[in-house]
Known about the structure:
Chain A: InterPro entries: Exosome_RNA_bind1/RRP40/RRP4, KH_dom_type_1, KH_dom_type_1_sf, NA-bd_OB-fold, RRP40_KH-I, Rrp40_N_euk, Rrp40_S1. By secondary structure, chain A is of the alpha+beta class. Chain A has helices at about 165-175, 180-185, 205-220, 225-240, and strands at about 15, 20-25, 35, 40-45, 45-50, 55-60, 60-65, 80-85, 90-95, 100-105, 125-130, 140, 155, 160-165, 190-195, 200-205. The longest helix of chain A has 16 residues, at about 225-240.
Amino acid sequence: MEDKPSSSPMSFVDQIVVPGDVVLDLSTMTNQTIKLGGGLRQDSDAISVMKAGKLRFSKPNKYWVESSQKRYVPCVGDSVLGIVVDSKAENFLVDIKGPALAFLPVLAFEGGTRRNIPKFEGGTLLYVRVVKANPGMNPELSCTDASGKAAEFGVLKDGYMFECSTGLSRMLLSSPTCPVLEALGNKLSFEIAVGLNGRVWVNATSPSTVIIVANAIMNSETLSGLQQKIMVDRLLQKIQT
Amino acid sequence: MDARLTNAWRMTVNEKKFIETALASDLRIDGRNPLEYRKITIKFGREDGSSEVQLGQTHVMGFVTSQLVQPYRDRPNEGSLSIFTEFSPMADPSFEPGRPGESAVELGRIIDRGLRESRAVDTESLCVLAGKLVWAIRIDLHILDNGGNLVDAANIAALVALLTFRRPECTLGGEDGQQVMVHPPEVKEPLPLIVHHLPIAVTFAFFNSEHTMVVDPTHNEEAVMGGRMTVTANTNGDICAIQKAGGEGVTQSDIMRCLRLASRNAESITKKINDAVETYNTERALRKIKRHSASVAVDVSISGGDVREPENKFFVHKGISELSRDQMERLNLVSEEKCTSQSSDINGGLSSSEQGRTSCQEGNATNFLGGPSSWDPYSKGVDSDSLKVSLASLGISAPDKHKRGEQKSTQAMEDKVPEDAKPATSATDTSRTGPQMSGEKTLKDAVKPKDKRRKRASSSMNAS
């Protein structure tokens, strides 16, 4: 990375970048719309990096920096797991592991009117989508997708939630399916909801399945694909016997 | 206010319900069975009396220090023991800096009661001058990470620190026998405390659903539990203390069951503590040998006994062969860390005698050829050959110390300082037969199998 000519963006994609690196030079790319995700900043003609991590690119034109940490930085469009802290007149206060509590408007549900405002007590687990995330302001959430349908968002009942790093939750959501989930899915049946803010919810018919799945996922943070498979096999063997 | 609200740890209703449901089928969320303890790791700091204990995610450090003070009026012959706890805000979002909260005070009290009421530490031996001067022992416990069950982890940390603490020896002198002289550790070996037994704290958590009880609760289980009880017991079958502060009611039979479980757990934990302390003492003895290598007629006490010099070496030889490779490597790392502080002492002794002969010193050693070398009183009067022989024979006792670098450099070698475990012994071997080192040793040589080291140790012992 050090000796490549810096003007071509392809040289930085999928590489480790550190704050201060200039990864794109807009003067060479005209008539193109580029979308910048988290960790990147525009300084007139240069796109520079703000967060240390890997630079990622997805067609046609989105760039962002990916890193793994325990705290979450809210980003528009992310699906996260939030815990209700309080309910106010206009919105619910939801904790999404970010620098500030997020607001969930009371009407942001499918078919939500003033007449049927849901009642959430403190500690309710919700699967929500981040609608607005500006630095310094409380993020805004919604329990519907972009078109207004419910689409799996809302309250998660029963099951067990645990926390992990943002990198692990991204790995769990990657496609093709992450090896640990695949290995577990071959033998056990469970349902799982992964929030990009480092929270994972697991539910199954028997508590032992939930515990196995939760521990297997927590252990797979630093393991490679093959190691994850081996770990899951060993865990399942131990339980069987 | 906002930040506190954001950073507070919250439990979901799902988690609460799940933990209770799982416990109904005797399952815990980390896969343990209800009466199982988490893994205990005991580590030591650089000084005597400092310990670091990890119980799963819970992380506690303990420090023991002593001071000469006036005794209490009603106990003129006894020293005192006091415990201070510090709940660091980095351990848990709910810990605030400043005055200790309720749980901090409770933790201190539980540990204090376990040690004081059961008379685990012998306070009468801490008396120096009856009515005038006694030793006051102070235990500081720092909570670094709260993963649940702080009491047990802090108790283990306090016990381990007490067992490895050494207080300075002091003698009475002066015309009327009233003058107290406290000897620094270099002059007289500091003494360990007299600990009669080890009171181990075992915590039980009770849940609202019919008689469910777990041992060693994690942070999540503590948030869900209905009540808790801590039983402090020792291996002699004594119950030293019981603490149950409020919470859910428990039947008599449950309490008896807890007492029995606590005694059983106390035995296994005591064994772990004793093993760890013994490793520490062996390592400390090795360090002692090194430190007094350049001086004469050393009163070295290993594990509390007075041993003559050759017996020391013999003990240490045995100790070496018993040390596992891990410990050797740990000592390696430890020696590397300590090279800045220790090498000044050690190198001082050696370099003054070998300065003339050596041109190339190893990296760390070069930095300390200055001041300290001048004040060592013994090396000047000793001729370099006999010094080298004595050093070489001592050197075999602890081949992993960086001090080996000194000896090798006398042969004008170019070995890396931390990797000299093997080359050191071979160097000292060849010091009799003449230098013929290759100087190309790598880390692999430092990690040679144990039997080779033993062979070398014995062969060099024969040679010397």
